Amino acid sequence: MRLVVVGGVAGGMSAAARYRRLDEQAEIIVLERGGEVSFANCGLPYFVGGEITDEQALLVQTPESLRAALRLDVRIHSDVVALDPDRRELTVEGPDGTYALTYDALVLAPGAQALRPPIPGIDSPRVTTLRTVPDALALDVTARQAKRAVVLGAGFIGLEAAEALHLRGLATTIVELAPHVLPPLEREMAYLVTEELRRMGITVRDGVSADTIEHGEAVDEVLLSDGTRVEADVIVLSVGVRPDTATWERAGIACERGGIVVDGAGRTNVQGVWAVGDATVSVDRVTGQRRPVALAGPANRAGRLVADDIAGRSGHRVPTTVGTAIVRVGKLTAAMTGANRRSLDEAGLEYHTVHSHGLNHAGYFPRATQIHLVLHFGADGRVLGAQAVGEAGVDKRIDVLAVAIRAGMTVHDLVDLDLAYSPPYGSAKDPVNMIGMMAANVLDHTMDVWHGDDLERMLAERLILDVRSPAEFATGHLPGALNIPHTQLAERLDEVRSAAEGRAVAVHCASGMRSYLAHRQLVQAGIDSANLSGGMLTLRAELGEALDDVLVR
Prior knowledge:
Blueprint: E1 2-6, H1 9-22, E2 27-31, E3 38-39, H2 44-48, E4 59-61, H3 63-70, E5 73-75, E6 79-84, E7 89-94, E8 97-102, E9 105-108, E10 112-114, E11 127-128, H4 133-145, E12 148-152, H5 156-167, E13 171-176, H6 187-200, E14 203-206, E15 210-214, E16 220-224, E17 229-232, E18 234-237, E19 241-243, H7 246-250, E20 255-256, E21 259-260, E22 273-275, E23 281-283, E24 290-292, H8 296-310, E25 325-329, E26 332-338, H9 341-346, E27 351-356, E28 371-378, E29 383-390, H10 394-406, H11 411-416, H12 431-443, E30 449-450, H13 455-461, E31 463-466, H14 470-474, E32 482-483, H15 493-500, E33 505-508, H16 513-524, E34 529-532, H17 535-543
Parallel strand pairs: 1-2, 1-9, 2-5, 9-22, 11-18, 12-13, 12-18, 13-14, 30-34, 31-32, 31-33, 33-34
Antiparallel strand pairs: 3-4, 6-7, 7-8, 10-19, 15-16, 16-17, 20-21, 23-24, 25-26, 26-29, 27-28, 28-29
């Protein structure tokens, strides 16, 4: 039995290593186009930033260590340029020339290539990517002499690269074509990340594109679509990736949306050929949409399961993905799992959204900080997606919610979760429990909510009731708002009726809790009411600077 794996790193090496554990007699050959077959690509930005100081720490395994431990024949600098599926034969361009290699089973793990948009001047020697160890080593050297950096693209790698260059002392500018950084994040979550980037001193230019890169003898200039010019000694290109599938498409491997189509066992449409990782199309567990997912975790797990299938161990299928991801930005952590508004809308799914701003641990214990959490859930209560931003405890909550999505849990299940509690770690009612309670209240109409998108309609159609304190009200309030602190509302309901003049009420406070209490009082008094989800904190994050044009001071 000869198993050939094309591509190392996450998916490919997981398949090769797992198959060796299942078959000690097999001949296993791994072909890797680059010079590193198993490296910590997620750690590259932290090497550039100086937090990882030993470049050898980036090399998880080497050809020599893999040969010694697992008897794998690892061939680096070996590029597969053709596949003949009828003959089960690969054409390989290696260090010693081109040769043919036959296989009994073939695993494709070619990964993805960095996108290079057709920007005039993108061939400048000052333009680089950050996807390989040589990329990181070269950028580390460049950063020692550079003073100004521009990062094109504000996805996960783009933000990590920007932070790394900032830590190295470079004046750093991020350019993002989308309306906000981290495009998969909801805008109210991305606003918090943008504010943190600016606090760090990183310039954020979102909603604009890089139109031209003008070469200079001493420095390049990046011309943006709004006419702005930004000088740069180094330009990091991080505008996304595309599956590396051209060779396989030519051989008749079915592809869709740029990725290789596989079934639940990782099999392609060609007999004897499996595929894993960034180059494959994954099925979204929430929306059912098919798309490539460039994440290391799913690739690793898929590699293991593909090896099982090759070995005849059927039953455990390659799972659908929920797209759980996390990134550090300065003092903050941003994380997500499941679907966001855009993917839910594209899939035509009905859903509700709630926001919370709970603390990462008990408020009476020192150094408690807020976790800003958004939850999307279906009309049936099923958890569809969640995102969180905060200084601490974000990873724990998103991991819990990722499990909830995987298990098909509802918001009522979130209420009942028995999570670890001690004052330094959480609260008796964890933020996950709390947002589950909020969502359950929406489902059974204990609480009706409104959002930032509804502001114009609320101002036109409803009485705005601000139940914050007079001091908070004076810092800025919505036009025409009636201010009655929530502790006084029970005695002043007639004022609300008089001011409303038969209209429904849109109530709010700073974070949504006091206004929830007020909402319940209003409803039980026979007054139609809806509560602003997440309060003014979320409204500010949803509308950003545009809110300043609305507020009255």
